[in-house]
Write a structure and sequence with these properties.
four-stranded antiparallel beta sheet, 39% helix, 246 residues, homodimer, DNA-binding, alpha+beta
Chain lengths: 246, 246
DNA sequence: TTTTTTGGTTGACGTGGGTCAACGAGCTTG
DNA sequence: CAAGCTCGTTGACCCACGTCAACCAAAAAA
């Protein structure tokens, strides 16, 4: 028995220290020495094919996940089948934080494309935060950022009109692609109109119509999932509209 | 100079160890010895009068707060003046977690009644989580719970109809009053219809109409802020309605 | 290749909840 | 005890978005 356990350790030794996502991920802001110690935290990687679940609501919580490649959506389901997409996650972002509170996941995480995640055992993370100076703070920041992000979505869902929501969504995607070294003006969305709609609290037809309207107005150019932002400033201006304005 | 600093320490020595809110608050699940060590974490208490801000968006982040008495709302403001209430907080709940990510608060916290909070210096909290075994885990659970709660609100805002939202809100309040030793059937709301509306993504008139409808249907009895839940099961049933149902 | 499936667009129409407005009930202040 | 507030209720009307349906394009399967 004893022999099998050590053998399962992942062949990839230098997980974080030579990953090009450090700037976006959990290790952000840590020193080189801290970084190398962090490598042992990432136990393994896991590939998740498009449409497959990384975890499901109710699954026992054991680890959080850092997205190494690809992208995901998280959603919550009501008994009657209604779905609410709670977020879209890209490389470097952390999945699974919802599971800590009850030691079981409270939402589903589904890959939007073939993806790969780093598995970070939660008990190991707790231990190491005692040891590595910057890790605890950085982890807290990641969780806090998630809370702030959720508040932004609540703002969007609670107080914005359909076109404002989509404009905010597009600008947010643009900024996140940009942070990952991709163009902020041209990108391919990985999710369907229905998923965008669920996230924004709109029906897919409304999302589609808003896309078309933006195109008519010369703000963007869309073809299916391909988006070209022609007038980002124009989109931003949409967000500052007074309730009564048109 | 040296003399003034020690003098400012709070006279209340046993902050957490003899607080009756331990069950609901940060110290939940910690041993007696851990608990007594926790006392030094709570530096001071702070009173906040009704309508006053505990903190504002943009304020530098230094501490989180545990509500000792009273209640609060948190909200986010858009440049154009639109407000989104992101949550209502009751005794034992933690405020200020949003500030960790950027080291500045990202929302406003306003007392709904004359209230008192325990001030927990964040740097001290970080230190002590290294030392007290259960503190780190418990703190993580508090943050994670906030994330899960926010996802619930997103579900509500994104996929529920007005009456479902209000039913969910009332059941949630009921359950939280109950957890604090108050009646789950009869309570006084601390917030206005407008604040409820902002939280639920509805206008105050719609909230008022939904209250009236619930009363007509014999589900509740309302008079201003006083609420009596007559048929909690009936309210729960409202939440399971299929989109097309009436 | 054709066929099927999935995803996206667009139009016509309906409705839930927003808007506007009047009024009334409690509080507060002088 | 007025006189002013703020907060809540209710009605009439309207519009942004949902619903339903037809159709088309792209991708996947056969």
């Amino acid at each position: 028995m004893r022999a099998t356990v050590p053998i399962t350790v992942n062949g990839l030794k230098a997980a974080c220290s030579q990953c090009n996502l450090v700037e976006l991920c959990l290790p952000f802001g840590m020193s080189d020495t801290e970084l190398s110690r962090l490598d042992e935290l990432v136990g393994a990687r896991r590939k998740v094919k498009r449409q497959q679940n990384l975890y499901r609501a109710g699954d026992p919580f054991e680890a959080i996940f850092a997205i190494r490649a690809g992208s995901f959506k998280t959603d919550v389901l009501l008994e009657d089948g209604r779905e609410q997409v709670t977020g879209f996650q890209m490389t470097g972002e952390i999945l699974g934080l919802d599971g800590i509170s009850t030691e079981a996941h409270s939402c589903n995480a589904v890959a939007l494309e073939d993806s790969e995640v780093c598995v970070i055992a939660y008990d190991k993370l707790e231990q190491m935060s005692h040891q590595i100076e910057g890790l605890q703070l950085q982890f807290h920041k990641v969780m806090s950022r998630e809370i702030v992000r959720d508040h932004g979505v609540m703002m969007l869902l609670g107080s914005m009109r359909a076109e404002e929501r989509l404009a905010a969504f597009l600008l947010n995607m643009s900024q996140r692609f940009n942070a990952r070294g991709f163009s902020s003006q041209e990108f391919n969305l990985r999710m369907t109109r229905e998923e965008i709609g669920s996230y924004l609290g709109l029906k897919l037809e409304t999302v589609s119509r808003a896309f078309s309207r933006f195109q008519e107005d010369g703000l963007i150019s869309v073809q299916q999932k391909h988006v070209l932002l022609l007038d980002a400033a124009g989109l931003k201006k949409l967000l500052q509209h007074q309730p009564g304005m048109r």
